[in-house]
């Protein structure tokens, strides 16, 4: 479903607002300190991030029917995201993107894609523990991994436990 001129215009306005919001958010986060993780790798075109876009929402948006309806309607009408499910524990909406072609692994409206798609995976740098799809070409490395690895080595852990922690805490170089 390619975007028409009206939808592209609305998405451009939404992108301006998203970019402003993102800039303010990143300023606040930087004031609290640098991101914990350094992103590595590059997009390998696997398309996993496009198959099921997931959007975290606030508690009121998740639980109040009118805000929930408004959010889901916006994403369906403007972004072409069809509601596919939710994660109640983490307050996430899970969608299916109508612009993603699973055969070619391409977006038919790449030029007018939403801000969240443009910002991936940079939006994960400030996460407590960034998670990527196994097929994804991106990964992250904890910036203080060397110090933490040394502390784990001094803890006299069994080798398999040490390796598990290095992998789960993303302490690889």
Q: Which segments are poorly predicted (pLDDT under 50) over 5 or more consecutive residues?
A: none
Secondary-structure element series: HEHEHHEEEEHEHH
Largest β sheet strand count, sense and barrel closure: 3 strands, antiparallel
What structural class results from the helix and strand content? alpha+beta
- Quantity of strands, as a count: 7
* Rg estimate, integer Å: 19 Å
- Helical percentage: 40-55%
Beta-strand share of residues:
15-25%
Q: What is the overall number of helices?
A: 7
Walk me through what this model shows.
This protein is of the alpha+beta class. It has a domain at 5-35 and 45-126. It has helices spanning 5-32, 48-51, 59-63, 65-79, 115-119, 145-154, 159-168, and strands at 37-41, 54-56, 81-87, 92-97, 100-101, 106-107, 138-142. The strands form three sheets. The protein has a three-stranded antiparallel beta sheet. A two-stranded antiparallel ribbon has the order 1-7. The model has no long low-confidence stretch (mean pLDDT 89).
Keyword list:
single chain; 173 residues; alpha+beta; three-stranded antiparallel sheet; two-stranded antiparallel ribbon
Helices, strands, pairings?
Elements: H1 5-32, E1 37-41, H2 48-51, E2 54-56, H3 59-63, H4 65-79, E3 81-87, E4 92-97, E5 100-101, E6 106-107, H5 115-119, E7 138-142, H6 145-154, H7 159-168
Antiparallel strand pairs: 1-7, 2-4, 3-4, 5-6
